[in-house]
Write a structure and sequence with these properties.
Length: about 140
C-alpha cells in the first residue's frame, strides 16, 4: 500500500472517530464505501462562477437522497491535456463516469462553461436525477 493511501486511510479514520467526515473528497482518497454508492464526480474549474453553486446543490441533494454519500471534486484545469473529462462543460456531474444530464463523452478537451436549460439545477432536481440513475 502506498504511503499516501495509508495517510488518507488514517486521516479518514480520525475524521470518522471525531464524527466529522467531509462530504467532498478527492477521488484518490475516497474511503471504502458501500457498493450502493456510485462514484460521483463534480467537474469544474476555479474561474467558473457556477461551480460553487453546483457544489452546494450537489451536497444538499446527496444529504437528502443518501446521507453519508460523498462526491469527488475535480479541477478540470489540473487534468492531463488528453483527459476527456476536460471536454465536459463546467460544471458537470458525472455518476459512474456518465454525465448526470445525458451529455455524451466529449471528443475534444477544451474548457467551456455549461448552460443548463432553465438555469442551474437545484438540489431537488439533482436528487431526482441521482435517484433515477442509481436505481
Amino acid at each position: 500500500m502506498k504511503t499516501g493511501t495509508l495517510m488518507a486511510a488514517a486521516t479518514f479514520a480520525v475524521l470518522v472517530a471525531c464524527g466529522s467526515v467531509p462530504s467532498v473528497l478527492p477521488l484518490d482518497t475516497h474511503p471504502a464505501i458501500a457498493a450502493s454508492q456510485p462514484v460521483i464526480e463534480l467537474l469544474g474549474f476555479p474561474e467558473c462562477p457556477n461551480t460553487p453553486v453546483m457544489r452546494d446543490q450537489l451536497a444538499a441533494a446527496l444529504s437528502q437522497l443518501a446521507p453519508g454519500w460523498t462526491f469527488a471534486e475535480t479541477n478540470q484545469e489540473q487534468l492531463p491535456a488528453g483527459d476527456l473529462r476536460r471536454g465536459y462543460p463546467t460544471p458537470t456531474v458525472l455518476v459512474n463516469g456518465r454525465d448526470l444530464f445525458g451529455l455524451p463523452v466529449p471528443h475534444a478537451t477544451s474548457l467551456a462553461c455549461r448552460i443548463y436549460p432553465g438555469g442551474m439545477p437545484d438540489a431537488a432536481a439533482l436528487a431526482e436525477r441521482l435517484r433515477a440513475v442509481t436505481r
